[in-house]
Amino acid sequence: MAGFNKVVHSYEDAMAGLQDGMTVIAGGFGLCGIPEGLIARIKEMKTKDLTVVSNNCGVDGFGLGILLEDRQIKKMVASYVGENALFEKQLLNGELEVELTPQGTLAEKMRAGGAGIPAFFTATGYGTPVAEGKETREIDGRHYVLEPAITGDFAIVRAWKADRYGNLVFRHTSMNFNPMAATAGKITVAEVEEIVEPGELDPSQIHTPGIYVQRVIKGNFEKRIERRMVRQG
Amino acid sequence: MALSREQVAMRVAQELQDGYYVNLGIGIPTLVANYVPAGIEVMLQSENGLLGMGPYPTEAELDADMINAGKETVTAIKGAAIFSSAESFAMIRGGHVDLTVLGAFEVDQNGNIASWMIPGKLVKGMGGAMDLVAGAQNIVVTMTHADKYGNSKLLSDCTLPLTGVGCVKKIVTDLAVLEVREGAFHLLERAPGISVEEIQQKTAGKLVITGDIPEMVFN
């Protein structure tokens, strides 16, 4: 692997360096746009005491939910975590710590973390349990809460197409948290559906410029649907 | 008679105006999309990153990468835009969404809303609700006027942990349409066949009744 060739050919290489106690930021919304193979690799590695930052924590047996099975997650930072029974059980047992964070605040914390902004004021959560213990300020007659940025030792994201420079394009609403997560990792690993030759991605259509991405791996995705809704057509 | 869920959605749909960007929450608010009045165009925003949400897909259109904020498979209309969660909440927090419709456990006469947490019960999270109520220009809450034991959900002060403060402007319940301003609920309309007395009896917060209160009209 030399210069700007960020493509790795094994999941071992993709997640090399992940250690107990690290913070991992994961893209995805529900099961949509999650780096399935990278999550599976973390399970294989048996890394413990992880802080995982992601909008949700998967479901029982799929997505980030599989990291609960061997109690690899110490703390979860998420906006909504109601989809798995194992999560509930570990939370009620005190085996798992949860920091519930409003969805927009979570996205902005990642964005700020990647953009070198240490904290920001937002009206979201003012006067609610989310603001407890946090600095607040009145600006032009409105109240705001100071929210610290988030960065991760690793960020794991799912993209549609990448080139060896790490430029990424996302597909449909599987974009969600992935672009912000990609900016906020010390090591950002992108698991992608397709790796194309440099130049094939239109420079003006790239969602995540390669500077944010350290490793790219081609994955195979199940793309499980969480709530399958169809109409007669 | 108290309104059905569909009738509540139909009444909320009357709040839509031509050219509105609208975010609909899960449950009754989602049904509002089925009753957009003829001759007006609204654009539905889904906070996972979709502006221009369409109906559920046909079997042939089904795509795991195309979902709404309720994690249901959906479609995008022609002219839709897709973007990141940060961009989505910039729209919401920045006040660019014209109308937000969401459910609640309780609303009080100062426009405070509680919709995400019941102490003692497992807390699943607030999702995007706190951002939505903090950012929308115009928030309509849909809920039943009272719980199944007959306890009012329109209070002088919310008893549950809040989702947002001073943000609710209008409430459509199964019994009434109310406006929240100047520290009181102002009764605007009542469901067909529901008396002002019944609404008064089921409203624990300060209720202002001015003149004759008309019945809701459904087309």
UniProtKB/TrEMBL annotation, chain A:
Record keywords: Transferase
SMART domains associated with the record: CoA_trans
Any one GO molecular function term: transferase activity
Entries under Pfam families matching the protein: CoA_trans
Entry keyword Amino-acid biosynthesis: no
Tree of life domain: Bacteria
Protein family according to the UniProt entry: Belongs to the 3-oxoacid CoA-transferase subunit A family.
Record protein name field: CoA transferase subunit A
Organism: Rheinheimera baltica
From TrEMBL, chain B:
Keywords: Transferase
Pfam families per the UniProt record, alphabetical: CoA_trans (PF01144)
Keyword Transferase attributed: yes
Gene Ontology molecular function: any one: transferase activity
Source organism superkingdom: Bacteria
InterPro entries in the cross-refs: 3-oxoacid_CoA-transf_B (IPR012791), CoA_trans_fam_I (IPR004165), CoA_transf_AS (IPR004164), NagB/RpiA_transferase-like (IPR037171)
Keyword check for Transferase: yes
Family that this chain belongs to: Belongs to the 3-oxoacid CoA-transferase subunit B family.
Record protein name field: CoA transferase subunit B
Organism annotation: Rheinheimera baltica
